[in-house]
Amino acid sequence: MKTFVRLCALLLFACPTGEARALCNVTATSVNFGAYDVFVAAPLDSTGSVTVSCTYFLPRNVTVSIGASATSGGFNPRRMRPPSGSDRLDYNLFTTSSRSTIWGDGTAGTSTVLLSNVRRNQPRVTTIYGRIPAGQDIQVGSFTDTVTVTILY
């Protein structure tokens, strides 16, 4: 009888029901550049973050992608716009602090980020590195853009 009970437990573990599948969530903080000065010769850098948490008990590898700019429709450059007016402010989001690899969806020369071994109740946080190139002559005001963060696990 003990052998049968152990075997059933093993089968339930090896073949989980639909209720026991992995559930992962993503949240992100905005990349807020603050004030951009058109007369400064250096780029303006800032950071944001992506947090991934999973509820499944086994570690998961999670791929994080960031979609194209809602303003430009592309990855390079992404663009922000003011509430009114035709000015556009180029910027981009990168996978590392060197800001050499554009964070995207793996197409058009972009890369995704792999978070290995995301575990239950141990959220993983990764940094988004943003940059606005210097020398853009734009109107005074607030500029925004929207991108979508997606996870694949």
Label the structural class: mainly beta
Number of helices: 1
Q: What kind of assembly state do the chains in view correspond to?
A: single chain
Topology as H/E string? Answer: HEEEEEEEE
The level 1 CATH classification is Mainly Beta
CATH topology title? Immunoglobulin-like
Low-pLDDT runs: 1-20
Mean pLDDT, to the nearest integer, reads 87
Q: Mind telling me which CATH architecture this is?
A: Sandwich
- What is the CATH superfamily classification? Fimbrial-type adhesion domain
The helix content is under 10%
Radius of gyration, taken over Cα atoms and rounded to an integer in Å: 21 Å
Find the count of extended strands (DSSP E, 2+ residues): 8
Estimated share of beta-strand residues: 25-35%
Word description of this protein:
Helix content is 8%, strand content 34%. The protein is mainly beta and 153 residues long. The strands form 2 sheets. It has a 5-stranded antiparallel β-sheet, with no helix packed on it. Strands 6-3-8 form a 3-stranded antiparallel β-sheet, with no helix packed on it. The chain has one helix at 2-14; strands spanning 24-29, 44-54, 60-66, 78-80, 89-94, 113-118, 124-132, 149-152. The protein has 1 helix and 8 strands. The chain has one domain: Fimbrial-type adhesion domain (Immunoglobulin-like).
